[in-house]
Design brief:
The complex is a heterodimer of chains A (about 350) and B (about 425).
Chain A (H helix, E strand, L loop, with lengths): L3 E15 L5 E17 L3 E5 L6 H8 L7 E6 L2 E2 L5 H8 L2 E4 L13 H11 L6 H14 L16 H13 L5 E5 L7 H18 L2 E6 L2 H7 L2 E6 L2 E7 H6 L4 H9 L52 E2 L5 E2 L18
Parallel strand pairs in A: 3-8, 3-9, 6-7, 7-8
Antiparallel strand pairs in A: 1-2, 1-4, 4-5, 9-10, 10-12, 11-12
Chain B lengths: L8 E12 L2 E13 L4 E5 L6 H8 L8 E9 L2 E2 L5 H7 L4 E4 L3 H4 L6 H10 L6 H14 L5 H5 L8 H13 L5 E5 L7 H18 L2 E6 L2 H7 L2 E6 L2 E7 H6 L4 H9 L49 E2 L6 E2 L5 H13 L95
Parallel strand pairs in B: 3-8, 3-9, 6-7, 7-8
Antiparallel strand pairs in B: 1-2, 1-4, 4-5, 9-10, 10-12, 11-12
The chains are: A alpha/beta (about 350), B alpha/beta (about 425).
Chain lengths: ~350, ~425
């Protein structure tokens, strides 16, 4: 539970940005810009942030689906960032991904049984049709699907069931690491809870190490022990879930928490507090100094826009990248007192 | 606010169905509600519950050859359901305006923002271009577009998602509508921008006194803005109440399910979510009786045949369409709130009086005492010791009437506390196609 299984060091991914037809400008999208964190064996690390903050790029870098511009990703002590596709293939048994849209990640012309069995074929495991079929049906059962439906096609399933297929395929080879990228954001509320409970149960029962990426803070809090908050390609805060929600240290984390609509029966129509102004800035031309400074309520001119804050231990055990982090007095709970 | 005041919008028994190759889709099935001036009605529901079709029909935007619309939609006393297209065109954008989920696809990509706003003004007012532009800029300024004049000279793609939604709101408000319909106005936006837009809508209402109907799948969004909330399921309103009542004392098992299946920041992190088993029904082959009965943990035999009506039981403002008795529902919700598990299977039906609190597990000592923090309630259909077996898988699009199948593996559903003609019926397992 303590040794880091995934070690990420100074990870950077820049994409060239096209500036109009036929014209390649010097613009670069700083999708991920210097991430350093560990994921411990058996834990679920959450990554939250708004669109464009680099969450999904991080997921793909972790699994070696993208090659970093610089920096490293190591899995179990072995660096994967420089490996070729062929070298990565045997490692992929250990690292699997669950995608947001299970419909577009399943082949519509194959039965779900065939899709779930594909990892066995790729890695030449469980030869023999009967054996493979047995394994597929076991997997379907373990994710709450009727094993008799193995010869159906994706369109015959509902969104929630398709996501179960996606989960079955991801755990088929007994991976150590599962990266889930917005696995429930395409699902309706009542079905979302089914999938969250499934993932939480699997994580516990199989001892999976999970990286769980979502934009919805309440979902991430439910799933994860530790949470990294990203803003514009950087981690601005990384802390234990309970600590992060009780005492956000970075003003951006606090603003995110304050923006979550709260179902408080006592205060249904209260005016919202501390609304963050503006939009997330462009990742093509990130602001100087602290990237959050143009929207930050604690901005100090001549400091925040000049010096870049590093991720350092904060007052309560978490890490925070802020020159003027919130203290217990200044930070406010996201939930108004009853 | 006097109760006698006539509502600005009165929808009565609205029915909308579409003929498709697969059969008739009954998208909206007998929906009635009122909205008074200056008030906000929130309509929540999952996809396919009929919430968007309802509001599109109010705007006259579902009229098509294969659509059947019945019922009455009265806006300030005028009937819209039977109005001609010409009449509707005069009403839309003037008395009623609408904003949509995706502002980029509702703004014209080839026209400058100023031109689109000016057109909206001049479609309904005999004013010159200059006057219309002045009004447009005033509105852009009001909705918080910085440097409105310069922005108005640009095109929609040059704006961020939040700014585009502000432009949409400006365009909707430019003729001072009496009613604003907002269909998932923040679903495409990031959470910090969502908070800005909700704040803006609330402020605009406070300043202009218009009525708002906001449609969302997100209970939280509705909770923050709406005075009254209607919960839709399979084309019908299953519960409607003032927002504070609905969130503190919901009475419909579907509303309970929605509230308990949402991860919430104000609940302990360890508390398990209770998912609603199954999934929303087909709108072509609808379940008989109560539409929610195949997923309802409290279903009884009669609920498969009898359709509940949306009626008040006690509080005249709190309407529920449920066949359980009011006191029974309140007792059940009190137990769910308190975190009581459904009684174990061996105990049989509970006594006819209110169930003693001792049947549930003792409250967890570790649970924080602050709000009525409840220990996790195991989902009714899921045996907790077993590994990750989730609730019985959703029925696939199959035969319409799921036959009552063998009892599901979990502990049976807590039977309602009242002696009833038949034994409690377990929820049906999934039908084989």
């Amino acid at each position: 539970m303590s040794a880091p299984l995934i070690e990420v060091r100074d990870l950077v991914k820049h994409f060239p940005a096209r500036r109009g037809i036929g014209r390649r400008g010097a613009d670069v999208v700083h999708a991920v810009d210097g991430l350093t964190f560990d994921v411990r064996e058996g834990e679920t690390l959450g990554i939250v942030g708004e669109s464009g903050c680099g969450k999904s790029t991080t997921a793909r870098l972790l699994l070696g689906l993208l090659r970093p511009t610089s920096g490293t990703v190591s899995i179990g002590g072995r660096e994967i960032s420089g490996l070729s596709r062929a070298q990565l293939r045997p490692l992929r048994r250990d690292m699997q991904m669950i995608f947001q849209d299970p419909y577009s990640s399943l082949n519509p012309r194959r039965t779900v049984g065939a899709s779930i069995a594909e990892p066995f074929a790729i890695h030449a495991i469980a030869p023999g049709r009967a054996e493979r079929r047995r394994r597929v049906q076991e997997l379907m059962e373990s994710v709450g699907l009727n094993p008799e439906h193995h010869n159906r096609y994706p369109h015959e399933f509902s969104g929630g069931q398709r996501q179960r297929v996606g989960v079955a395929r991801a755990i088929a080879l007994g991976p150590r690491i599962v990266v889930a990228d917005e696995p429930v954001s395409a699902l309706d509320a009542s079905v979302q809870a089914q999938i969250l409970n499934l993932l939480r149960g699997l994580q516990r029962d199989l001892g999976l190490t999970m990286v769980f990426i979502a934009h919805d803070l309440s979902v991430v809090r439910y799933m994860c022990e530790r949470i990294a908050v990203m803003y514009l390609g950087r981690i601005v805060e990384l802390a234990a879930a309970d600590e992060l929600f009780a005492h956000p240290r970075h003003p951006y984390t606090a603003a995110l928490l304050a923006a979550v609509p709260v179902l408080d029966p006592q205060l249904p129509a209260q005016p919202r507090r501390a609304i963050l102004g503006g939009d997330p800035p462009s990742a093509t031309d990130p602001p100087s100094g602290c990237r959050f400074h143009p929207r930050c309520p604690r901005f100090v001119a001549g400091d925040c826009d000049v010096r870049e804050p590093l991720l350092r231990p904060g007052p309560s055990g978490g890490l925070v990248a802020c020159h003027h982090p919130l203290t217990d007095v200044s930070s406010s709970s996201p939930v108004p007192p009853r | 606010m006097s109760v006698a005041e006539t509502p600005l919008l009165a929808v009565r028994d609205l029915q909308v169905s579409f003929d498709t190759a697969d059969g008739v889709v009954h998208a909206v099935d007998g929906v009635s509600f009122d909205v008074r001036a200056g008030r906000t009605l929130g309509i929540v529901g999952e996809s396919g519950s009929g919430k968007t079709v309802s509001v599109l029909t109010i705007m006259g935007l579902t009229r098509a050859p294969h659509t059947r619309i019945a019922g009455s939609i009265r806006l300030a006393g005028r009937e819209l359901a039977t109005a001609t297209q010409d009449e509707l065109r005069r009403v839309r954008g003037d008395e009623v305006a609408m904003i949509f989920q995706d502002p980029l696809s509702s703004l014209h990509p080839y026209f400058k923002i100023a031109d689109q706003l000016v057109e909206a003004v001049r479609a309904h007012r005999a004013v010159g271009r200059g006057e219309a532009l002045r009004r447009a800029l005033e509105l852009l300024d009001l909705v918080g577009i910085p440097d409105a004049r310069r922005r108005a000279a640009g095109y929609p793609h040059e704006l961020s998602g939040g700014m585009r939604q502000r432009v949409m709101i400006a365009m909707a408000l430019v003729n001072d509508p009496k009613l604003l319909i907002a269909d998932e106005p923040t679903t495409a936006l990031d959470v910090t921008v969502q908070a800005q837009i909700l704040e803006l809508l609330g402020r605009m209402q406070a300043e202009r006194g218009m009525a708002i109907v906001i449609v969302s799948h997100d209970l939280g969004v509705v909770a923050g803005l709406a005075h009254d909330v209607a919960v839709m399921y399979a084309g019908q309103i299953v519960e409607q109440a003032p927002a504070a009542t609905l969130f503190s004392a919901p009475e419909h098992p579907y509303t309970w399910g929605l509230l308990r299946s949402m991860p919430r920041l104000d609940r302990p992190r360890e508390e398990d979510l209770v998912a609603i088993p199954g999934r929303p029904p087909s709108l072509i082959h609808r379940p008989g009786g109560c539409r929610f009965h195949p997923r309802c943990p409290y279903v009884r035999e009669a609920h498969r045949r009898v359709q509940p009506e949306l009626v008040a039981d006690g509080d005249p403002q709190h309407l529920t369409a449920c066949l359980l008795e009011g006191p029974q529902r309140r007792a059940l919700w009190a137990r769910l709130r308190a975190g009581d598990a459904p009684p174990p299977p061996t105990t049989g039906p509970p006594p006819t009086t209110a169930p003693p609190p001792t049947t549930g597990p003792p409250p967890r000592p570790s649970a924080p005492a602050e709000p009525p923090a409840a220990p996790p309630v195991p989902p009714p259909a899921e045996p907790s010791p077993a590994p990750p077996v989730p609730p019985p898988a959703e029925p696939s699009p199959g035969p319409p009437v799921p036959p009552p199948a063998e009892p599901s593996p979990g502990p049976p559903v807590p039977p309602p506390a009242e002696p009833s003609p038949g034994p409690p019926v377990p929820p049906p397992a999934e039908p084989e196609p």
